Amino acid sequence: MITFCYAKWLKKSNLNILAITHHFCYHVFMATQQTTQSGWNIVGHEHAIDRLRRTLAARQVRHAYLFTGPEHIGKSLLAHRFAQTLLCTGGADPRVAPLDPCNTCLSCRKVAHGNHPDLHIISRAPDKQFILIEQVRALQSDSARKTLEGRRNVFIIQGAHEMNVQAANCLLKTLEEPEPDVVLLLTVPDSGLLLPTILSRVQQVSMHLLTSSQIKTALEQRWEVESEEATLIAALAAGRMGWAVQAVEDEDLLAERKAQLEALTKLPMVSKVQRFEIAQRISTDADKARAVLELWLLWWRDMVLAANKCLDLTVNVDMRNILKQQAAKVGTTEAERMVRAILGTMEALDQNVNARTALEVLMLDLPAIKM
Ligand SMILES: [Zn+2]
């Protein structure tokens, strides 16, 4: 019996196979999804879009929205599209936001090019640990002034859970007494990461993982990816369109995954000394260690499936032969134990346990395979 719940794990782990920043996805999307057609132009997420369109149709736009869902699922993209619609002047009545962005009016084009004066993007600076109070104060001063071109001042706070306590409390004041024409759009992987006082003042828009067939079809039709490659990327994307697009745009991402996996498949056959050397090498960089562990987790989850004769459900579709061979030797119990051991190591790293020690313990847990 398969006891490991993949969907639950994905939600919990914010899967990030090879560390990539969440700021990148939006630009990839915008670069590849620019069209002159009217519409939201988003793959999937119909439920979330319908909800926003109903709000627009009823002319009941709230002051704050919270977009939630796993990393690289398209939260920033949806927030940008909503902002674009709120600022679009291409509708029947240019004074009212249409139900869909027209993508052709000056306002839509400015949003697409990132230079609309009434759309403000706030995110953690790459060299900082948090979104800082100064950034929220700047938001407050911008929100107090009159709009320059549009009907509204729209603010997108990407990764709002990265606000430190001071910044979050400062934002709370804006949420409690919002300026009439201000709309705040927050994105977070999980609503539980925000203060309850903030949560109670935002309208939540939940976004969910797409199916692999949705992703595969989109890759083939919109990005003209060959069928075989689209199948592989769609499987690895594990429901996250943003990751899939990035894998199409950045060839190194898949090449590095392949190299990492090939090294991983050899691990059960090497000596403990060699394993410890590898543990030491990985543990020097915390982000890299986490990325490698996530890849391993995906691999061992596939091993559980392969050991249970469910090879067709495995994600690493290009490695099924070797999965089948190794699973026959490892067996279900050992594969499940490894999944638990990797999850335990990831938790230990989250709690700042010494990375090298944690990885060395994991290396000892790895079953030996004689091929
Ligand atoms: Zn427009």
Entry summary:
The chain is of the alpha/beta class and 371 residues long. It is built from 17 helices and five strands.
Descriptors for this entry?
disordered N terminus, binds zinc ion, 17 helices, alpha/beta, five-stranded parallel β-sheet, 371 residues
Chart the SSEs and their pairings.
Blueprint: H1 6-13, H2 22-33, H3 46-57, E1 64-68, H4 75-87, H5 106-112, E2 119-122, H6 133-144, E3 153-157, H7 165-176, E4 182-188, H8 196-199, E5 203-206, H9 212-222, H10 227-237, H11 241-249, H12 251-266, H13 272-283, H14 286-307, H15 320-330, H16 332-350, H17 355-365
Parallel strand pairs: 1-4, 1-5, 2-3, 3-4
- Largest sheet, if any? 5 strands, parallel
Q: Give the proportion of residues in helices.
A: 40-55%
**What is the approximate shape?**
elongated
Query: What's the tally of helices?
Result: 17
The rounded distance between the terminal residues' Cα atoms is 25 Å
SSE pattern? HHHEHHEHEHEHEHHHHHHHHH
Q: Strand percentage, roughly? A: 5-15%
Q: Which runs of at least 5 residues are low in confidence (pLDDT < 50)? A: 1-37
Number of strands: 5
Average pLDDT over all residues: 85
User: What structural category do the secondary elements indicate?
Assistant: alpha/beta
Instruction: Give the distinct bound molecules.
Output: zinc ion
**Largest sheet: spatial strand order:** 2-3-4-1-5
